[in-house]
Design a protein that fits this description.
Number of strands: 4
Largest sheet: 4 strands, antiparallel
Strand order of the largest sheet: 1-2-3-4
Number of helices: 1
Helix content: 10-25%
Shape: flat
Oligomer: single chain
Order of helices and strands: EEEEH
Length: 78
């Protein structure tokens, strides 16, 4: 079983076939700082099971945010 601590769900931004796409703060290893995590989650009774996704460092999240902002701004102006 995968051990993790879900600190906070920042947003749920999609759903498909019973799975939710979420941006969360999650700690995968005890004692390590929580990281941003984009992942699908399957509701399982009162708990949620993590599916495939990716974990981002703060630096990676900043780069991703900049790229998304630039893409959406460019798309909006064309």
């Amino acid at each position: 079983m995968i051990e993790y601590e879900l600190e906070k769900t920042l947003c749920t931004f999609g759903e498909s076939k019973g799975y939710e796409k979420r941006l969360c703060l999650i700690r995968w290893k005890s004692g390590e700082p929580a990281k941003l995590d984009i992942r699908i989650w399957k509701p399982d009774g009162e708990t949620h099971k993590p599916g495939k996704g990716l974990t981002l460092t703060e630096r990676e999240a900043i780069i991703l945010c900049g790229a998304l902002t630039e893409y959406l701004h460019h798309k909006e102006n064309h």
